Backbone:
């Protein structure tokens, strides 16, 4: 988002809508440091807060992994070794580290098998404005090309049973995904277990490059966002900005 002055974070979406009345001058990258303008692009810190807000609002994303060397026990084309695959998966923010998404890992699922074989994983999310968002005459305000999206890159880690019970991970996940109860650990359908995506890198694409930050967010910034930051942040189309 491309901003005219220093603006409280909860007003960032409003500022975005106000400055998107003209076609973007930069789309896939930010302007150079010497570009003359009275506007500013949100800081990395502000972008991290927006990303955590999207994580808080979301519960479905694309989980990507890479196929390992073809195994005789796997029934798949031989040409897939080293090829990435992305599939839609449920997630939630449960436990003491809400910045590391909780995954219901079904052992037979392709992403889980790939991760067990050594693949890193990437969870990709994008912001979906509320269905009742205010209308806009500007075609760029709610353009998917101008709305934020990002990827969380890391590895899958098993959550120990003691922690599952202490933080009521099952109840937390079921609150976001009631239908997932039938394939939670202990079910009669498939073996499953609780895992977390331990985030190691964050790539943020906040929107058009002349009004949003595009680039890597340090993991320290990602983890350093507080619950209050997330609650006070409002994205374009949300009520209360």
Residues:
């Amino acid at each position: 988002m491309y901003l005219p002055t220093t603006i409280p974070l909860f007003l960032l979406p409003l500022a975005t809508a106000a400055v998107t009345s003209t076609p973007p001058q930069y789309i896939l990258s930010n302007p150079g440091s010497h570009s003359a303008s009275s506007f500013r692009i949100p800081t990395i810190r502000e972008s991290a807060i927006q990303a955590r807000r999207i994580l808080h609002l979301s519960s479905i994303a694309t989980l990507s992994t890479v196929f390992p060397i073809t195994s005789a026990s796997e029934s798949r084309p031989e040409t897939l070794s080293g090829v990435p695959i992305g599939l839609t998966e449920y997630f939630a923010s449960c436990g003491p580290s809400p910045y590391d998404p909780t995954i219901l890992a079904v052992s037979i699922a392709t992403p889980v098998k790939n991760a067990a074989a050594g693949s890193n994983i990437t969870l990709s999310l994008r912001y979906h404005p509320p269905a009742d968002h205010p209308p806009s005459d500007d075609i760029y305000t709610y353009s998917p090309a101008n709305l934020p999206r990002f990827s969380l890159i890391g590895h899958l880690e098993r959550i120990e049973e003691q922690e599952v019970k202490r933080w009521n991970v099952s109840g937390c996940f079921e609150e976001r995904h009631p239908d997932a109860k039938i394939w939670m650990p202990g079910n009669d359908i498939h073996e499953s277990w609780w895992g977390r995506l331990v985030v190691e890198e964050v790539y943020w694409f906040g929107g058009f490059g002349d009004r949003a930050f595009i680039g890597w967010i340090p993991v320290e910034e990602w983890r350093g966002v507080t619950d209050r930051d997330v609650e006070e942040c409002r994205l374009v189309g949300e009520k209360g900005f």
